[in-house]
Design goal:
Blueprint: E1 8-15, H1 18-28, E2 32-39, E3 42-51, E4 60-65, E5 78-87, H2 91-100, E6 109-111, E7 114-120, E8 126-132, E9 154-162, H3 165-175, E10 179-184, E11 187-191, E12 200-205, E13 218-226, H4 229-241, E14 250-251, E15 256-261, E16 267-272, H5 300-306
Parallel strand pairs: 1-4, 5-8, 9-12, 13-16
Antiparallel strand pairs: 1-13, 2-3, 3-4, 5-9, 6-7, 7-8, 10-11, 11-12, 14-15, 15-16
Bound molecules: zinc ion.
Amino acid sequence: MSLALSGIHHVTAVGGDPQKNVDFYTQVLGQRLVKKTVNFDDNSVYHMYYGDEVGHPGTIMTFFPFPDIRRGRIGNGQVAVTSYAVPLGSLDFWRERLSSYHCTVFEPSTRFGEEALVFTDHDGTMLELVATEEAGKVAGWAGGPVPAEHTVRSFYGVTLWVADAPRTGRHLTEVLGWEQVGSEGARTRYRIADGNFATVVDVIDRPEQPRGMGGAGTIHHVAFRTPSEDDQEEWQVKLAEAGMNVTPVRDRQYFKSIYYREPGGVLFEIATDPPGFTLDEEVATLGTDLKLPPWLEDQREAIAQSLLPVEVREVDSV
Ligand code: ZN
């Protein structure tokens, strides 16, 4: 079988206050907190993972929530917008729900024949809901505060902002093997793989526009799925041959990862599907305890003390 990525694995963002982060993604957006751990590269900061019931690849939004960080600026060289798929007919429900929590919600727009609702979280992170027929064919997670028929089912895709879209586009098609499927104005659409979920990458051409700056409300990177460590190793070789500065394999406990910047500056990760979030917790209790990888267990007390306590709780506002 030829080497191919099978969709988005997760999206990782920088957030502000950790409790507000939990409030927004579990109570407003209705995802499940499936893992509460720390940033393995800076264990004074949480790493929160939100997803469906088990945190399937393609549903996982993750955050490094720094309590006192300043806001960043969304710009070129970043994932600017993260999109979730919801069933057809759900956008009215969402518009009302998001407005009731005082989120900034933009007028719905239509792209490539599909309706999209753009909004921001409490930190200014740009999010989007896209209504699709396919989303209505799978069940949502019924354990959260959002009625099951309207829940976000998975990611729909991501939107990259770059200064030279054709250059990024060549990388996506020639190196990663994705298909260019259409364009509307400055937006060119690529599809990572066959299948309906978390397979869309839009690239917006923004020549002469400012680069993004990291901080709260900005996306740190997007990860794409590979089925095995063997395939990941092949990607490492292939990307290096294409001139990319790709990292060694990093053990992220719930998956293995390699990272590089695509030619437009957006940080890409290639992450393995296995082993997943049930590695160290049962499905029923995912996200309950602070989980640490074996190499940080001997520092548990100090790490736990340095983190602000957070809980999954009902909220009226965010
Ligand atoms: Zn990642």
